[in-house]
Each structure stands twice: as structure tokens, then as C-alpha cells.
Amino acid sequence: MRGLRLLRAPAVLCAAACALLSAAGTPAHAHTALQEASPAPGAKVGTGTRVIALTFGGLLKGTVPKVSVAGPDGKPVPVGEPVVVPGSTVCATVRRLPAGVDSVTYTVLAVDGDAQTNRFLFRVAEGAKAAPVPAACRGRRLPSPPVEQASGFLERQGTAVVGASAATAVMAAAVGVLVVRRKRRGGTAAGGGDQMTR
Fold first, then answer.
1. 3-state DSSP assignment of residue 67
2. What is the pTM of this model?
3. What are phi and psi of 37, to 5 degrees?
4. CA 149 to each of CA 80, 81, 90, 139, 155: distance values in angstroms, whole numbers, following the listed order
5. Do residues 15 and 100 touch, judged by C-beta distance below 8 A?
6. pLDDT, tens digit, 9 for 90 and up, residues 149-181
């Protein structure tokens, strides 16, 4: 009997150790895995899609995932500030999607605090139906996408260049007026000199 008890003890310890190892082996990001998305990975949607929605298994409390969208050429599409709603769903508005194969990139914080970034592709076509807006996102005030995000600094730089060009034109016009005035004054003096020479 003692022998059986001695044999059972290591078996119980081994089973407990295996259970702990299997639990420890479960990735912490399993809870933050993407469960649903609109547009869904590989889906075909229309250019009129205005909301990106991502539903996760669970999100670290107090955190807001980062969401970005890119067109077929890799250029970013303006996305509004993401909003987390009950049910671990993230909603964000988006500007008009360019036709072609677009992508959604999202970064979430796992329970252990590690940041995880993933990306999926979907197709955008003219005339296709817009991606459905999940019930969790409907009727909510979502921040509008920024205007400058698509072209970024280049757009602001272009505005600055236009302003600089306008300022240059004004300065050139002012200098031109001064030159004309000086010529007129100089012409009168020269005319007087000619008259005096005569």
C-alpha cells in the first residue's frame, strides 16, 4: 500500500506540473485576439465605408488600440480617434476608401502589457456595398478623421509655399512701385538737366 502511495504522489505532482505548464504556455495575447472586424479580412466593400470596427476577445482596461488604414499605394487614409465601446469593440471613422486592396493595421496591449501589432487586407470596389456598421458603433459620436493625415506635412508645406509665394508677389509689387517712382523722379531731374544744358 505504501508503495502504491509513493507511486501515486509523483504522478499527482507530475499532473499538477503539467497543468501549470499548460496554463503558463497559454499566450497572454489570446484574450486580445481579433474576433470580428468590419470590414472583415478578405471582404469586398464599397468606397462608401465610413466606419472601421474591430472586436477583440478582451482589452486591457483603460487602453485604446491604435488603428490605421492604408490604400493600395500604401498611403495612409485618415482615421478618426478610435473609441472603445462595451463588448471590447473599437469603432473609428474613416475617410473615403480608395479602390483596390486596402489594409487595416491595429496595435493592442495584451494583459501582460506587451504591444502587439497585426494587419489584414480587404478589397474596396466602386459600386460595392459599404461595410456594415456593428450595432455597438451605431448612434455613437465618433471623432471625425483629420484632414491633414492623408498628405501630412506636404499639405501644410504646400500651403506655406503658397503663402510665401503670395508674400513674394506683394513684395515684388511694392519694389516695382518704388522703382517706377524713382524713375519718374529721376526722369524729371534729367529732363531739367537737359533743359539746363540747352
1. strand
2. 0.62
3. -150, 150
4. 10, 12, 20, 25, 9
5. no
6. 444 543 433 333 333 344 434 344 443 434 444
Question: Containing H/E element for 18?
Answer: helix 2-25
Query: pLDDT tens digit string along 82-96?
Result: 999 988 999 999 999
Rounded distance, CA 150 to CA 69, Å? Answer: 10
Give the residue carrying C-alpha cell 503670395.
166
Q: Which residues are bridge partners to 122 per DSSP?
A: 102
Determine the Cα angle at 132 with ends 127 and 133, to 5°: 135
**CA end-to-end distance (rounded Å), the chain:** 145
124 residue type, one letter? V
Pick among 2.30.42.10, 1.20.910.10, 2.10.260.10, 2.60.40.1220: CATH of 26-150: 2.60.40.1220
> Distance between CA atoms of 161 and 7, rounded to whole angstroms?
84
What residue ranges do the domains of the chain occupy? 26-150, 151-198
Residues in the chain: 198
Q: 113 - beta bridge partners?
A: none
Q: How far apart are CA 46 and CA 177, in angstroms?
A: 57
All three cell numbers of 87, joined, read 463588448
Give the Å distances, CA to CA, from 71 to 10, 121, 151: 59, 10, 13
What amino acid is encoded at 109 in this protein? L
Cell of 181: 517712382
